[in-house]
Structure prediction request, 213 residues.
Amino acid sequence: MSLALRFRPLALLALLACAGSSAPSWAEPGSRTVIPLHGQLLVFQQPAGFVLLGEQQQGGLYLREALPEGEDRGNWTQMLTVLVHRGSPDGLEASPGALVRGLAAAYQQACPRSFATRTLADAALPEGHPLHAAVLGCGALGEGAQRRGEQVLVVSIKRAELYFTLQWTERAAALEQAPVLAMEQWAARFQQLAPLKVCDRLPGERAPYASCR
Prediction:
């Protein structure tokens, strides 16, 4: 299960179990992906070889998961999770950096002796929306056959009251110590998600959402 679900409020767990929820995202070959929500368009590139696992929307929460082709929820090596929600989890105004640091602090609780983190970017999109990206790592998570290591690229973007979070998680063999974060690899993967954009959705606009390119 993705880092977002491990540490977000219980409403997100209910969201995954919600049957019949809408699935609003749209993707074109290549794979420019657009998520139209709350009058906004989130645009990113889904990595080559990834396919949609599922998406759910309930109220102000939206969750989308993608895996490498051929993998499933019970057995995966990488996962790309997109989370969109109104307001910060604690109900307070928060920057993308504060949101990522809060997520990192919660993640650290799962592996206090083997945790590592480094900031990758603290900047803004060309449209001016603040963005923060960091890499988190745990040497060992889980127990028994599920014991493993993880590294996660977390990208958070804020526009008005909306937060857009992308998480690219990769599993590895468990370690007793904190992992060495592969920053060059994660920087390259961050670029694979580009161009990242958040735009106003024009009234009545439909796929392929040509206004946000």
Remarks:
- Helices lie at 3-7, 10-17, 96-108, 183-192.
